[in-house]
Amino acid sequence: MGNKHHYSIQYRYDSLNRLIMTTIDNRERYQYGYDPTGSLTRAQFSKMSPDTSQDSAGFSVGAEEQNGDPMAWFMLRDDIQYGPYSWEELVNFAESERLVRGDLLWQEGMGDWTPAEKIKGLFN
Question: pLDDT of 47-86, one tens digit each?
């Protein structure tokens, strides 16, 4: 019997059910972009750091399985979900302007994604 290979593949879709990202084993990521008519205009490949599962902007992608903390925060930007993050990390991101007021945030217990600017204590 030959070697067996097991892969973890995650797919992300936008609100129009178009594929926007494929992540393989939290190591390789393919992102797709579309024009207003729905035509595919961008397909981008990137390797993620295997020890942190971060993209080139430094945000964690597909790391939900790495942290079971129910108070963890998640960020949504351009239909891509990042996280989980601690409150301290979010404050640091806000201070360094990696998190902007229009980014959407969510944590367990919240009804819906909320603009970062409406999260009390995040931006001073």
Answer: 764 444 455 445 544 433 333 444 688 888 887 877 778 8
From 15, 31, 24, 97, select the one nearest 58 (Cα to Cα).
97
Q: Is the dihedral of CA 78, 26, 99, 110 positive or negative?
A: positive
Residue entry with tokens 């393919």: 30
Sheet with strand 104-107: strands edge to edge: 80-85, 73-77, 104-107, 114-115
Q: Which residues of 38-74 are buried (b: 16+ CB within 10 A; e: fewer)?
A: eeeeeeeeeebeeeebbbeeebbbbbbeeeeeeebbb
Q: Of 18, 27, 79, 24, whose CA–CA distance to 48 is shortest?
A: 27
Q: Quick one: which of 75, 101, 71 has its CA closest to 86?
A: 71
